[in-house]
Amino acid sequence: MAITVLVIARSRNLFGVIVLGGIYSFLMATVLVAMDAVDVAMTEAAVGAGISTVLFLGALYLCKSEEAQPVNKPWLPLLVSLAVGAALVYGTVGLPEFSNPQAPIHTHVVPRYLNDIKTEVDVPNVVTAVLASYRGYDTFGETTVVFTAGAGVVALLRRRRNKSKDRKA
Amino acid sequence: MRHDLILRVIAKLLIPFILLFALYVQFHGDFGPGGGFQAGVILAAAVIFYALIYGLADARKVVPEPLVESMMAVGVMIYGGVGVAGLLLGGNFLDYFVLDHDSVHGQHRGIFWVEVGVATTVSGVMLKIFYMFADRGNADDE
Question: Any idea where the domains of chain B sit in the sequence?
Answer without folding.
Answer: 5-141
